[in-house]
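step 4 of 6: structure.
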Amino acid sequence: MSIKTYREAINEALLQEMKKDENVIVIGEDVAGGAGTNGEQDAWGGVLGVTKGLLKHFGRERIIDTPITETAIMGMASGAALTGLRPVAELMFVDFMGVCFDQILNQTAKFRYMFGGKAVTPLTIRTMYGGGLRAASQHSQCLYPMFTHVPGIKVVLPSNPYDAKGLLIQSIRDNDPVIFMEHKNLYDTSGDVPDESYSIPFGEANFTREGKDLTFIAMGQTVAICNNVADTLKKEGKTCTVLDLRTLSPLDEDSILEAAEETGKVVIVDESYPRCNVATDISALICQNSFDSLKAGIKMVTPPHTPVPFSPPLEDLYLPSEEKVLNAAKEIL
Amino acid sequence: MQLSREELLKAYQGMCLIREFDDAVHYEFAADAMPGFVHLYVGEEASAMGICMNLNEKDTIASTHRGHGHCIAKGCDVTDMMKELYGKKDGICGGKGGSMHIADLSKGMLGANGIVGGGPPIVLGAALTYKTKKMNNVSVGFFGDGASNQGSISESMNMASVLKLPAIFVCEDNGYAESTAREYAVGGKILDRGKAFGLDSHEVDGDNFFEVYEAAKHVIDNARNGKGPALLHIKTSKVYGHFEGDAISYRTKEENERIKNDEDPLKIFKKKVIDAGLLELTQLENIENESKSKIKKAIEESKDAAFPNPNDLLTDVYIKY
């Protein structure tokens, strides 16, 4: 066990799985960097350095730099998965799903069902999401509800370095297509991560705080926000549960209902656009199944229904914050 | 002539089976006996057979919405395919795919495709598997003149060229994308698009089995030997419309007659092999009769077969969830 960043945890998962299984390959834009140049090879190791260092272990036959061509990347990775490899394809920013969604939505996600159960597509798509880097409307979106909406894909949102490593190893070993979503604000966060290989099963949400007065339901970066607010409220004499969903598809419905019923007061914190997002979905789930346990209306903390703004004060206003979450909690406590 | 008598017979058997299959679907669909919508390959048979006779069982293809011919040429079972078209449980995809999603991975058939230009990016992946695992195989992506205008095709040709993949792109140009003419919708030449990406690119008369076979042999052998990807631009025509029920009012009567009488790849094949004394007329007629009875039987079996069970609705979304 040692302290590692979220970025290092992801890199270590890739390194260990690639050493273990020669069918695992990495495909993407600048995943090594420097292809075709006379300068440094592995110049970038991914745009934020997540895959840095893999090239020297595995060479360009397994760390494959591609042109900027997302449809061909996603299609190639899907076809390779369908024919015996176990690719990890990088979609640099999730926003770029706009230029390649057909290969995910209409091809990969549907192979198994429409081919009558005969297809096995062990594909992992790694992608970066979320706001806070002043990256504006086309490089800051969450979009995980759009993938969660599609049957045939699994959607994974690690909230910390330990989960990032264990969930990525599970994603790579999983025989269904998985989209593994990395919040770009989390890359430099640190935590205890075992050096050895381990996997975390999908569909098992994680209770990061347990309390009696209120339940926060969170995913990805919003888990840390909710943990901090829960710690603040504890000082004020209120104990809260925080449930980290870990995977949106499959969704751990049992833990969500258990967490909601125990306190009867629920705040869901979701960084994605507010219409048809994870918060509205979970809210509906709780209302359908646990309505009688609720002591107050469910609160949702989400951005407004706008694109992500660039200007720092506007983006700060846009994103869920500890202050907004605390205020929402106090309204029903 | 490089082809043996057995190979010539196999070519004609394949083309006849495709013809009988889709002609039968044409009549069944018109009689309201078949659900969904279907796109027929009649008139393009020489392309599927000319290409696929150069492939082995471990090579792969990805097809289009007009995919029955490719499936048959790659060895899919016609009875299982027909059951699929009727939505039956024992169909080749358990009745969950239908005409546009026929696949048999055990035969190297990676799927017909309901998305125009959807298949070639997948072919890249199969070709990458062969390159990575140092396998002596190739993957072929079929698409039409309509799909040639999709970005996915340009992206795929470029990626195949950059990574030197054993991928063959086959543009079956039947002159029409739905009701719109190639002359209207294609800027420049399809052949030049392959050349622009550095692909070995050839234009081929798709009504002539022998010309398709020779061109395919050349580019597939090269790809197998590590010489990289290629484009075949196959000029052909389809007898029926875009989908069944299309009145084809955008084509003239003369054009329809010409396609049927002068551009029929089966008639052209038959004349060539008989004139050259390679096969006997009776051999060819026997094949025609065998194909007819095989498809008749496939339809009877399919009509009698059971539909999926209600619990089949929920299976096969994930392997484990």
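step 5 of 6: annotate
 - The domain at 206-332 of chain A is CATH 3.40.50.920 (Rossmann fold).
 - Chain A has eleven helices and 14 strands.
step 6 of 6: archive
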